[in-house]
Amino acid sequence: MLHVEITETGKEGNIAVITCPYSKGYESYTKYFCKGGYTDCETLVKSNGNDSWTYTDRITMNDNTEQKKLVVTIRDLRMEDAGDYGCGIETIGRDPFTLVHLKVIKAPKPPKRTQSNPTRSSPPPPTVSTDKTGKIFSSIFE
Q: Among the CATH numbers 3.40.50.1950, 3.20.10.10, 2.60.40.10, 3.20.20.150, which is that of 2-105?
């Protein structure tokens, strides 16, 4: 993580997976993921150097020490998530840092559902008639 820049893209409502590689020797160090650039980065999630998984709200961070990479997942992407982020390693002096440019693509709006009101043809009302004697006949099946 020697001051690298990467760009990741995700779609609104989906997830973004950000992978920040780091150099050998930093496996046991505290790692963090923050919003902003190197000098003005607000920490969103931070490991304690021992746990490989760290969670907050919509963000999951996995420190894969075997492959020497920090993998950050942001769930339920929102348009306001777009911007600069950083993956860093806490050290004495200048922290090794990867600048991440996150782009969020607006999800297409689902097509408008129009409710069509087809004219229902209802069956005609039954016809009622009488015969010469006054008996009522009903014809339901006409």
A: 2.60.40.10
